[in-house]
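Researcher: I'm preparing a figure for a lab meeting and need a structural model of a single chain. I don't have an experimental structure, so a prediction will have to do for now. The sequence is pasted below. Please return the structure as C-alpha cells so I can convert it later.
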Amino acid sequence: MKGRFDDVERFSRKEKEMAIFDFQLPELMTTREVAEFLRVSEASVRRWTNGRILKCYRIGRSDERRFFKQDVVQFLTERAS
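Model: Understood. Here is the structure written out cell by cell.
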C-alpha cells in the first residue's frame, strides 16, 4: 500500500519546502497546531523546544509557546533529509 509520502525522495529540498508552504498554516502557530501538522504529540513538541531542537517564542504571562511557520518547516526539512 502506497502512502502519500512514498515518492518524496524524488523531490529536492527546495521543492519539499515549497510544497509545505502550500499548506494553509498560520504564520504563528500554537503547540497544538504544530503537533497536528507534524503528526506527533504535544509532549514531543514541548520536549523538542525544551531541548532547543525546535525554535519557539514565549509570549504572555504564562510563557505560552508560539512557533513561526518558517521555523517549523525548516525543522521538518532538516529532519527529512
